[in-house]
Design brief:
The chain is an alpha+beta fold and 152 residues long. It has an eight-stranded antiparallel sheet with strand order 1-6-8-7-3-4-2-5. The longest helix has 14 residues. It starts with a strand and ends with a strand.
Length: 152
Amino acid sequence: MMDYEIIQLEEKTLVGLTARTNNQSPDMYQVIGQLWGRLYGEGVYEAIPCKKTGKVIGLYSDYEDDEKGDYNITTGCEVDCADQIPEGTVIKHIPAGSYAKFVVEGELHEAVGSFWQKLWGMKLDRAFICDFEEYQTKETEHAVIHIYISLR
């Protein structure tokens, strides 16, 4: 059992790169990894104007049904305005609502992967509208990630 708190979030606007995948796809990790690589390696992160906090976000949205179906993954950051966005990026909205907030710490890939495996086994009344990871640090060895899961 993982500890979490139920919080109410206001709507957030995100600008970033997006792709479609699903958890059973053999190339899921490659699809997600390529998005993160493009965000940093192609200068997309630096080009996004009006960053609200500078923290990067991994957003899961547009679920086909549940964790077994297709979904969109977007890598980017929260912005105050989305008037002029870099070419090739998208605007996504994280809806206001009730979320379960988890705090995950450890080696980045291991901690996040382990979190999702455990979450899929939890009895949580998920909405499957929008879930996201907000990276609090830029470290990979000792990462701190806040993960928000939308609730019904």
